[in-house]
Design brief:
- The complex is a heterodimer of chains A (146) and B (112).
- Chain A contains four helices and seven strands, in the order ββαββαββαβα.
- By secondary structure, chain A is an alpha+beta fold.
- The longest helix of chain A has 20 residues.
- The N and C termini of chain A lie far apart (66 Å).
- About 8% of the residues of chain A have low confidence.
- By secondary structure, chain B is α+β, with helices and mostly antiparallel strands.
- Helix content of chain B is 31%, strand content 33%.
- Classes of the chains: A alpha+beta (146), B alpha+beta (112).
- At the A-B interface, β1, β2, α1 and α3 of A face β4, β5, α2 and β6 of B.
């Protein structure tokens, strides 16, 4: 095996005279996801339509789902991030989206050196704090009926 | 001798793995199926592979999971791992290894 081994992950590569450094896409996706969740007003990230990370994690126990809900495309030292969120009811979605965007750009730059040029945020739903209480009530009622 | 010097590779992989793990900010070495690993009788070192070029030059790969530290640059972490691995290799075999590829596969995030 004379050739350098291919590292079997997609990611950003940089070379030094004594070896390459590879930052995997998943790493950038996780940093971006955490950066988004740090912002007040973000209730959660959405993995696919109608499915929140929490719900997904409950179904697939032990699976690491933190890269889910965030899509990262890296090219030539820069990248694009797409993510979907559920926002808390009552917040300014424009301001929350702006804060998410800036926090992702800052965190990814600080931790990986990668410039994120574009952060696309889709707000798929609003979270009402009463929702959970109501769901619990409904469940309790159903149990009484059953 | 041109035979497969397995024992030397295993000793190198072991030394490099332990050096990488001792770097602050490394959570653990990657254990992804199909990822870098060094296999030997009764032992396997996950996350580290050693290979030889035709000219006998040694080269290592380290695949790791980093701790999530928002203020730390993962490339700097990779450089520290590379330096630690190069040093460990020099202490293990004469001449050490020519280079070390470092892949950050994942970050270990704090449990909420």
């Amino acid at each position: 095996m004379e050739e350098r081994m291919d590292v079997p992950v997609a990611g950003m590569e940089s070379a030094t005279s004594q070896g390459r450094t590879i930052i995997a896409d998943l790493v950038v996706a996780k940093i971006a996801g955490l950066a988004a969740k740090e912002i007040e007003g973000v209730h959660e990230l959405v993995t696919s339509v109608g499915e929140t990370i929490a719900g997904f994690a409950q179904r697939v126990t032990r699976a690491d789902t933190r890269g889910q809900g965030v899509r990262v495309a890296l090219e030539d030292g820069t990248g694009t991030v797409d993510l979907r969120i559920v926002a808390d009811y009552g917040v300014s979605i424009v301001q929350v989206a702006d804060a998410i965007r800036r926090n992702i750009i800052n965190r990814v730059k600080a931790m990986t050196g990668i410039d994120i040029r574009e952060v696309n945020i889709e707000v798929t739903d609003l979270y009402f704090p009463q929702q959970e209480e109501r769901a619990e009530e409904l469940e309790a009622q159903q149990r009484r009926v059953a | 001798m041109n035979g497969p010097r397995l024992e030397e590779d295993v000793a190198l992989a072991r030394a490099i793995a332990s050096a990488a793990l001792s770097v602050a900010g490394v959570a653990h070495l990657s254990e992804e199926p199909g990822g870098a690993a060094t296999h030997a009788p009764g032992e396997s070192i996950r996350g580290v592979a050693v290979r030889r070029s035709g000219a006998g030059q040694l080269w290592a790969t380290v695949e790791l999971v980093a701790e999530y530290r928002p203020r730390e640059n993962l490339r700097d972490l990779a450089d520290r791992v590379r330096r630690a691995a190069l040093r460990a290799a020099r202490e293990t075999v004469p001449g050490g290894v020519a280079g070390v590829d470092v892949a950050v596969h994942d970050v270990a995030v704090p449990v909420e």
